[in-house]
Design brief:
Helix content is 39%, strand content 21%. The protein has helices spanning 17-20, 48-59, 73-87, 106-119, 162-168, 186-196, 224-238, 240-253, 255-258, 264-275; strands at residues 9-16, 34-42, 63-69, 94-98, 103-104, 123-130, 133-134, 143-144, 158-161, 201-210. Strands 1, 2, 3, 4, 5, 6, 7, 8, 9 and 10 form a 10-stranded mixed β-sheet that branches. It is globular and about 55 Å long. The termini are far apart.
């Protein structure tokens, strides 16, 4: 395996076998200073060589890939991150955590990388557009991400220092995220793990990719398991005492969002169930 220079920017894509076949060249432009890694999981319906051919058609020669058995988004992301870390000689590049349904803005990615280096930021959080609008509401100025504002950070907004990940053994908690017992919260936990070991996370109003106007994080209440996952997420990231207080505050704050689906009392009980997991 040829090693990359420390200035290299790596895009780490997570996908599944069925979704891999739908990728388009326009989503992932090629650039001499850009390298791709891809982790694919699930159950293949075609010979592996067909998936390899698709990867090569989309990403060209500057791509490493891995195929995993089973499911679990955090496990898939960790496999992609491991590929990226293995590809960097001195572990001092940056990795964009990417989904298979985004379209990259390379000028924005390179700009965010430059800002992250100049400001000594361990995770630079950028902006995601959604067509002519924004993926979510963003501030117009940069700011530091706290343990609590980390709840607003999505993985596809992150540009992460590979050196920091490698030195501090940071990875996604594979008990959280789609395809696991707790189907959300992995990004919040990831950010808090970084903050807990002295890492710096900062938002910059720089657009780095485009994503369809859908976010699984907006639905946290239609199923009991999703509410329990929120409590478990808070407990894992903040500890049980802080998580208990935050669960009560969160339940009251979000009551207008879920009141047609669930009573306040039931929501609080489910949150606490997650905290006490």
């Amino acid at each position: 395996m040829n090693q990359l220079q420390s200035s290299q920017l790596i895009v780490a894509v997570s996908t599944t076998y069925d979704r891999l076949l739908n990728l388009k060249n326009t989503q992932f432009p090629r650039h001499e200073a850009l390298f791709y890694v891809l982790s694919c999981q699930g159950e293949p319906q075609l010979p592996i060589k067909e998936y390899v051919k698709k990867i090569q058609d989309i990403f060209g020669e500057k791509c490493e890939y891995a195929f995993l058995e089973g499911f679990g988004l955090s496990r898939n992301r960790n496999a992609a991150l491991a590929l990226a870390l293995d590809k960097l000689t001195r572990k001092s590049g940056f990795i964009h955590i990417c989904d298979d349904d985004v379209t990259l803005d390379l000028s924005g990615l390179f700009e965010l990388q430059k800002v992250a280096v100049n400001t000594k930021t361990d995770i630079a959080v950028g902006v995601v557009s959604s067509g002519d609008a924004m993926f979510k509401e963003y501030k117009h100025e940069s700011y530091e991400i706290s343990p609590y504002s980390a709840a607003k950070v999505s993985s596809i907004e992150m540009l992460v220092s590979s050196r920091f990940l490698s030195e501090n053994k940071i990875a996604f908690d594979e008990s959280f995220g789609l395809g696991t017992l707790y189907p959300s919260g992995e990004e919040f936990i990831f950010c808090n793990d970084v903050l807990n070991v002295g890492g710096r996370i900062k938002f910059f109003p720089i657009t780095i990719c485009d994503h369809p106007p859908i976010s699984s994080g907006q639905d946290f209440f239609t199923e009991s398991d999703k509410v329990v996952a929120k409590g478990a997420m808070l407990s894992r990231a903040l500890g049980k005492w802080k998580a208990f207080l935050c669960s009560i505050a969160f339940s009251f704050k979000k009551w207008p969002s879920y009141k047609k689906h669930m009573s306040l009392f039931k929501f609080i009980l489910l949150m606490i169930k997650g905290v006490l997991r």
